[in-house]
Amino acid sequence: MKKYLFLSLLFLMVSATNKEEIVGYWELYKIEKLSTDLTKNKRSKFINFKSDGKLEGGRIGEKPNKFGGWELKKDNNILVISGDVNDAGNYTVESLSLDQMILFKDSVRIFLDRGRK
């Protein structure tokens, strides 16, 4: 019985990311490449994932200047971002909670948390 309870809890902990968990306003607070912090300005950028699959982003306190789309591939926790050439691509969702998300692409780890918008 304990074995099944443990397996059930384990399954819940590693279940696929839900689209609804990503929707909302996020602020970028840290960027790492190969464990080296590349963050120039703390909390200078934001991204807003909308429920209709569109996104917008830019500098915090300014109007959005980047636009595109997004899609979550639930089977493997891949966040596909389209739009601006520099930011487009497939990002692995390494971690996601109510207030923090960590994305990974091309040896770069991106740390975001729920903004105060």
Fill in the keyword field for this structure.
globular, eight-stranded antiparallel β-barrel, mainly beta, Lipocalin, 117 residues, 2 helices
Q: What can be said about the biggest beta sheet?
A: 8 strands, antiparallel, barrel
Percent helix range: 10-25%
Q: What radius of gyration results from the CA coordinates?
A: 16 Å
Strand tally, please?
9
Structural class: mainly beta
Determine the number of helices (DSSP H or I, runs of at least 4 residues).
Answer: 2
- Integer count of domains: 1
Listing every helix as H and every strand as E from the N terminus to the C terminus, the arrangement reads HHEEEEEEEEE
CATH class membership: Mainly Beta
- Shape call: globular
Mean pLDDT: 83
List the strand order in the largest sheet: 1-3-4-5-6-7-8-9
Question: What is the beta-strand fraction?
Answer: over 45%
Low-confidence stretches: 1-16
- Give the N-terminus to C-terminus distance in angstroms: 46 Å
Under the CATH scheme, the architecture is Beta Barrel
The CATH topology name reads Lipocalin
SSE blueprint:
Elements: H1 2-13, H2 19-22, E1 24-33, E2 36-37, E3 45-49, E4 54-59, E5 66-73, E6 78-83, E7 89-96, E8 100-105, E9 108-114
Antiparallel strand pairs: 1-2, 1-3, 1-9, 3-4, 4-5, 5-6, 6-7, 7-8, 8-9
General description of the model:
By secondary structure, the chain is mainly beta. The protein has one domain (18-114): Lipocalin. It has helices at residues 2-13, 19-22; strands at residues 24-33, 36-37, 45-49, 54-59, 66-73, 78-83, 89-96, 100-105, 108-114. An eight-stranded antiparallel β-barrel has the order 1-3-4-5-6-7-8-9.
